[in-house]
Amino acid sequence: MKDKIFLEGLEFYAYHGALPAENEIGQIFKVDIEMQVDLAQAGQSDRVTDTVHYGEVYEDVKEIMLGQPVNLLEHLAERIANRINSHYNRVMETKVRITKKNPPIPGYYEGVGVEIVRVSTQ
Known about the structure:
By secondary structure, the chain is α+β, with helices and mostly antiparallel strands. It is built from four helices and four strands; from the N terminus they run βαβαααββ. Residues 5-118 form the Dihydroneopterin aldolase/epimerase domain.
């Protein structure tokens, strides 16, 4: 299966991080989501009910990213993947990539982050 739905470059100003400064000042997080979904039925029917509504996925990601601060990006990514895989029965696999665009680390870079892939158990 090669069909995918993606949400790319979602940006949220949030207060996640293990360092106190990250929780006080906050920073921009970039989130990319890729879901493996069989899109053949939606391609034939032209009905949103035969696919995954990416507007709803966006709202789920937004709720988690702007919710209670956590220490680790790994935890955020896991929460997002679990939410998607448990709420959308058409999703077979979810890839979540979260980037801190400007963490408090000396140096020059475009960002640091994590990427996870979780297979749905549905």
